[in-house]
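Repro:
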Amino acid sequence: MSHSKELPNYVFLPPDIARRHAEHTVNGLYDLLPSEISWRNRYVFLQKRGYSLRKRYHPEWKPSWIGTNVAPDFCEDSIDVSRPHVIDAERTSDGLRVAIKSVSNEGDELKLSQFISSIGGAENHCAEALEVIRDPLNSNRSFLVMPYLRPYNDPELQTIGDVIMFVSQMLKGLAFLHHNRIAHRDIAPPNIMMDARPLYPSGHHPVRMHCAPDAIHDAIPLSRADHPVQYYYVDFGLSKRFPPGAPSLVLGRVGRDMEIPELSNTVPYDAYKADIYALGNLFDKEFSQRFSNIEFLRPLVDCMKQRRPDLRPPADELVKMFQQVRALVPDNDVRWRLVQRSEQPYEKFLNDTVAVAREGISNLKRMVG
């Protein structure tokens, strides 16, 4: 490893432990996983197509900690992929961080992703398909290239305004999908992500997301209140696009949310109404049930989670309903912290004090530019 003198002391190992890690390395502890070997085999191809994988996947990769006393965990090239079929990369033309997903050519995910991306507009809150590339080593699969996104709740939403922004964008995004005759069919926390670049202007590691790109130092996020982010629906593997004039009926107990009442393998149900329940359920579990100071959300959630699908308003009406609800929230409340229902009085006092101090610092920064 080069520039080791610039590294913090805590990355260095005592000689005996360094020798032990060297033995582990020789014995294969840090070798590529089977799924990683697949990406290594496509490194050169993707490089020629304009996408550079991390150096761990270079065909001639050698662990950077060999011959040093640096702990492997603090070496970027020791970090493997978090999902076998998705890998991060850098677009060589402009340095944009992207995610490359291996997708089956069967099914509608590729076609739907490209169709959705072809429709412009601020209401389109779906992950963009930048490019589709045929897999040179597997004729049954292709690579779907998208902007790199981070889980929407990492870091956690902190203020009432954060929740308002999230709910607004997700409702508008769902109305956009349904307007274009597409049902997502798998709305759940793992399938909503965000472009977190405003929160991490210096970047973060794409896998070890709490770390800076070097995988050594901490990546400290800025606040959403001062640096708003955009949220996106991802994963259209179960999604369905309906022909013009066709009913939006489907079959199947599919998706992550098994609490949707009408899911059935035998009785057709309205996919749009199921989407609405799933999103309402997400709002309920992620926010209404957790925080005591967002009661304004309760009527919307109850409306979306009615057991009878025909009583759930369509997504475009929910957008209007929430705009009316939002207008009733005082501006002074928007920047106030979310209060956990489980907070004890002493915790609330302490957290409120910290929140007031943090808001004062934020106001001062805005005043001085």
